[in-house]
Amino acid sequence: MGYPRKLTRRFRAFDNFAISFTIINIISGIFSAFGFGMEAGGPRILIFGWIGVSVMVLFVGAAMGEIASAYPTSGALYFSAGKLAKRHRGAWSWYTGWLNFVGQVGGTAATGYAAATFIQAFIAMQWPSYEVTAQRTVLITAVILLIQALANTYTVQLVALVNRISVWWLLIGMVVIVVALTVVPDHHQPASFMTHFVNNTGFSNGIYAAMLGLLVTSWTFTGFDGSFHMSEETVKATVNTPKGIMRAIACSAGAGLILMLALVYAIRDYAATASSAAPPVQILIDGLGVGTAKLLLLIVIGAMLFCGLANMTSNTRQIFAFSRDGAMPGSRWWHSVSLRTRTPVKAVWLAAACPLVLIIPAWWSHTAFTAIVSVNVVGLYLAYGVPIFLRLRLNDFEPGPWNLGRYGKLVAGVAVTWIVISSVLFMLPQVSPITSTTFNYAPIALGVVLLIATVWWFATARRRFQGPVSYGSPDEVAAMDLI
Predict the structure, then answer these.
(1) What is the pTM of this model?
(2) Mind telling me which InterPro entries this protein's record contains (predicted)?
(3) pLDDT digits over 213-268, tens only?
(4) What are the residues facing 234 on neighbouring strands?
(5) Residue ranges of the domains in the chain?
(6) Fold of the CATH domain 13-463
């Protein structure tokens, strides 16, 4: 790909799958956004929306996998955008990289914030006198980010080991939760309950509310570009990277549907559950009792912490690669690699600091979580969409060993269509009436990043950044290999 090697190839096929599966993280995604889905569409959207969005995401993953097979680098999306563009390669690469960056930051922030929320729910269950506050949620999130940054500063073997553990934590944890919710409760909803529709968003239009409810599934299915970002550290990356993406999406789709059905049918009092501080926790308490609920809540919190760690790992590699090509402020800092651990340590701490800035509005905003989720979904999916769109326009695309053959353009077309629809949807207001505390500030956060990127591009970057840097021919790069 034109780069001297700085990162070691120690990720096996399972490790590559594990990082995307961990970031998608069905337990974290479903438990953190389930309450929003109960108000925006209810069971009908939670279940059928999951199925529909899962299918669309498989199209996106397949289109991305084909590109990943052709360009297996840490730069991933922005690198491939620069290579696939017919003209203005630097600009396409620049904006893709910044969209990917803000989406990754949003994912790390949202996962940490969700973990902090559930940690407080557990503390309140254990010690009823504990007062849950938005300020404490922000502070706990900051501690979580600190711990995850420390874990990421050590060797890539440690990260790979943790991700392997997280896969089994997720699968076994999901089975335990589903079995408990199926066997223990003495009351379940009737089969027809899956068609029950609810609109408590404040908007009178039911279709609009139902579309908002798709956020639950879309938020869960983000971050599978993690496999792409880890390709420089994956053996046989041209095959194992796209397989990692597709396996992570497919396994998450099937397992997530089972978990979603178990939660929906275990709801006892819909109105009371929906209005509780953490609806999934209330479902566990109503069906299983406080003691069992606390034990299962530990599984959920563990899944969220694993998810945040993998998110930060992926974000770090994107920062490392983008800085390697001189596309970020202080690039010389962020692409340096520790000689002891062979990891981009400085990029790790930037990947921890930026999410902390993003969650600061949660100190006073009641809708901060859904706004952060929207930043995550929109930023990432637009970054996914750019190289897929460019591949769609390219008639002489040279695929890698893993490819879609004659169906490549059809799959890419479906993927781009879904990305456009979902991106527009999640920039819109999510709660009515719209006030300073319910306002969806995702467009502002995304707009600020794009404005800075645009000003910087026209001021200086367009004259020095022409897209991914090539250090020379394969033989020349091999001669300067750093490992």
Answers:
(1) 0.85
(2) AA/rel_permease1 (IPR002293), Amino_acid_permease_CS (IPR004840)
(3) 998 898 889 889 889 888 887 888 899 999 999 999 999 999 999 999 999 999 99
(4) 11
(5) 13-463
(6) Amino acid/polyamine transporter I (1.20.1740)
